[in-house]
């Protein structure tokens, strides 16, 4: 092979390597929004009186100024800190229900140890909807459309092991948010 051919080949390989590297970096960093993020807030809004259950509000907020969350939308996953189940949910749905065979009379909505939650479709029934839901996981950029930069869902969870009622203010319901796919 001639020397100029090798130089051109080396140049193309180097260019390809730099292009691939810049694509990887671009997924993690947006120069238009260098300090922005997507925030997940999990608030226990009330405790049930009959069981060790609670109602929780989960808010997903897109704080990017210009970056949208496009289709296929967000998918939220987490690992329970304790043995817990989800009895009901509005504004989103669990992708799998898990093995609920331990429950004989009332069957929970989701028994997964690590559930994955997705947004509802825009044509979801009114009974399944919550405010700011049902956009198929799409979140607008905050500075472009603030109302559609938020997604809210509610779930009724319950511990399968009794909880010390004196310690409910310090209870860590979720062990960790394991995945947020965009």
From TrEMBL:
Gene Ontology cellular component list: plasma membrane
Pfam families reported for this sequence: COBRA
Tree of life domain: Eukaryota
Presence of the UniProt keyword Phosphoprotein in the record: no
Coiled coil residues, start to end: none
Protein's GO biological process: cellulose microfibril organization; plant-type cell wall cellulose biosynthetic process
Keywords, sorted A to Z: Glycoprotein, Signal
Signal peptide: 1-28
InterPro entries: COBRA_pln (IPR006918)
Signal listed as a keyword: yes
Entry's family note: Belongs to the COBRA family.
Name by which UniProt lists this protein: COBRA-like protein
Native source organism of the sequence: Amborella trichopoda
Upper lineage: Eukaryota, Viridiplantae, Streptophyta, Embryophyta, Tracheophyta
């Amino acid at each position: 092979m001639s020397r100029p051919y090798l130089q051109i080949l080396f140049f193309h390989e180097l260019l390809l390597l730099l292009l691939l590297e810049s694509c990887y970096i671009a997924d993690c960093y947006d120069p238009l929004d260098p300090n922005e993020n997507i925030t997940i807030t999990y608030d226990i809004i009330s405790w049930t009186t009959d069981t060790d259950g609670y109602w929780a509000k989960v808010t997903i907020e897109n704080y990017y100024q210009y970056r949208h969350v496009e289709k296929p939308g967000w998918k939220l996953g987490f690992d329970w800190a304790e043995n817990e189940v989800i009895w009901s949910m509005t504004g989103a749905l669990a992708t799998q229900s898990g093995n609920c065979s331990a429950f004989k009379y009332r069957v929970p909505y989701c028994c997964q140890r690590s559930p994955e939650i997705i947004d509802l479709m825009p044509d979801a029934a009114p009974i399944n909807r919550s405010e700011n839901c049902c956009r198929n996981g799409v979140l607008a950029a905050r500075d472009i459309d603030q109302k559609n930069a938020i997604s809210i869902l509610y779930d009724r969870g319950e511990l399968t092991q009794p909880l010390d009622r004196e310690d409910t203010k310090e209870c860590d319901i979720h062990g960790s948010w394991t995945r947020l796919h965009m």
